Description:
The chain is mostly helical. Helix content is 51%, strand content 4%. α1 packs parallel to α5, α3 runs parallel beside α4 and α3 packs antiparallel against α5.
Amino acid sequence: MKDLFIKRFEYYKLLGDKAFGQLSEEQLFWQYNEESNSIAVIVKHVAGNMLSRWTNFLTEDGEKSWRNRDEEFVNTFKSRQEVVDFWEQGWKCLFDALAQINDENIYSVIYIRGEGHSVLDAVLRQLAHYPYHIGQMVYIAKMAKNEDWETLSIARNKSQEFNSEMKNKFSGEDLNTGSSPVCFQNSPEIREEYKQ
């Protein structure tokens, strides 16, 4: 199950990477209005959450005393590189934590803000949380790029073509593999545009 979690999180990280990889530094800091977050601020929140939740996650509460969640929504980054570095730091913390999950501890109780969760539930909680914000990042990036946006999924008006390609590619194969060619970036079934 750990490998499945890692594959799913890798896919969502890749979406974020590809979204802000299309943007200029100025676009990373752009916000629609004063109440909206820039991609840089969303990165600050997501990575801040990752560092808090996944640092020593088996032995310490996931809401660390050193975390200042409200400050995550105030931009303090000065450059694109600072944004990327913090993004990578958060993901490294998450993936290092996921590597520690095994059959013996997946149902162990850990705490977030004093509330008990199984390790499995804590992972699923973040598997909902991080893609929510990555979707926001993609949406903002798409607005910023407008007609220059390079799609991260099936191109507009290409669904039938894509479905036909997938049916042809997988006809006669065991379809009960539990894998998704859209989501598993390192799987042999992955679409070409997602290979790194």
